[in-house]
């Protein structure tokens, strides 16, 4: 799958504007970069189907500063008895996904994913292999404002006991699912094709890391 053309243009324009504004441009150049940002905002608002307004997207974009780079999303892939660990996203109509989220400053990607699994699912794990480094725009996810890299780590349980995770405003249930009985997925975060690929990695541990 390729990213919609309007989304590619909007992401690139936003990145140009953000990076240009970060270098303290002269007043006329600043005005031009701000005009480019406004075009990106209008394109994003017109192209999205989730009803986000120009004001909402403007607020989102204006919070981005410095040289624009892709965001990094980390996800933990944990198996037990031929089943994969999924968590239920309250903020996405209770659809299911691999535990994970944005990588945090001060942590390696592997450290971030282990923490996310603990916080969201209540399992202690260790990261053992990078299964995939995907460009979100090249997979069948719904449109998203920012260019994102998605890192999927195979993680092993270090303790098979599920500790009761704290009340979480984002996560509902936690469960294990076989490949042929997956629940409705939060495709913003993970796709059925990606999970199928991770089951392939589970069955054939010598497969190399996927990318793009």
Strand content: 25-35%
Residue runs with pLDDT of under 50 for 5 or more positions: none
Overall 3D shape = elongated
Strand order of the largest sheet: 5-1-7-6-9
In total, the number of domains comes to: 2
* CATH overall fold name of the largest domain: Nucleoside Triphosphate Pyrophosphohydrolase
Oligomer: single chain
Helices and strands, with pairings:
Elements: H1 5-22, H2 27-47, H3 54-62, E1 71-77, E2 79-80, E3 83-89, E4 95-97, E5 100-102, H4 109-121, E6 124-135, E7 148-159, E8 171-178, H5 192-203, E9 210-211
Parallel strand pairs: 1-7, 6-9
Antiparallel strand pairs: 1-5, 2-3, 3-4, 3-8, 6-7
Helix pairs in contact: 1-2, 2-3
Task: Describe it.
Helix 1 (about 5-20) packs antiparallel against helix 2 (about 25-45) and helix 2 (about 25-45) packs across helix 3. This protein has a five-stranded mixed β-sheet with strand order 5-1-7-6-9, covered by helices on one side. Strands 2, 3, 4 and 8 form a four-stranded antiparallel β-sheet that branches. The chain starts with a helix and ends with a strand. It is built from five helices and nine strands, in the order H-H-H-E-E-E-E-E-H-E-E-E-H-E. The protein is elongated. The longest helix is centred in the first third of the chain and has 21 residues, at about 25-45. By secondary structure, the protein is of the alpha+beta class. The chain has helices at about 5-20, 25-45, 55-60, 110-120, 190-205; strands at about 70-75, 80, 85-90, 95, 100, 125-135, 150-160, 170-180, 210. The model has no long low-confidence stretch (mean pLDDT about 95). It has two domains: about 5-60; about 70-210, Nucleoside Triphosphate Pyrophosphohydrolase (Alpha-Beta Complex), CATH 3.90.79.10.
